[in-house]
Amino acid sequence: MTKIILVRHGQTFWNLELKYQGHSDIGLTDLGVNQAKRISERLADEKIAAVYASDLSRAYHTAEMIAQKHKLTVISMPEFREICFGEWEGLNYTNINEQWPEVMGKLFTHPDEIRIPGGETFHELKERSQKAVERLIARHEDETIVVVSHGGTIRTLICAALDIHLNRVWNIKQDNTAVNIIEYYPDRTMVALINDTHHLK
Question: What residues act catalytically?
């Protein structure tokens, strides 16, 4: 069995401003750095074989704090980036809804049916991130690893683990530095934890 601890990055400046980030490389706020420190402390006693992260700094820097506790180096994997929001990046919900009301109208009800203007589909996000997970499962048999990623990506991976439709992707909450645990057995996949943030309290 391979256990993957999926962690969302700490708070960013665009999280505060409610802007869509996607592939834009936005840094952590002071609170985000503190959240990363707390998740590193929470996972300090876990027996972790490797730490992987999206190559975007908000995820990579969160992962670095976790890895330091285990004397590990973060392995960067662009496959774990957030969904590409294309022309929406840097805009908030109101800005986007004014320009693309039809597409935005389906984002939260039928995300499986849309392509974000200039960006990705949720199918493409699922395909690239799930293929990366499958490579890590093969590489880390009987080990526990950490993957630090992004809200949309983690939601998509949980949908894949539970074998539920991508139109349910927004039914899964993901707070900053939330911990999710998925156990991959040869004959089944088990989701053991979703969106746990007790380390922040």
Answer: 9, 82
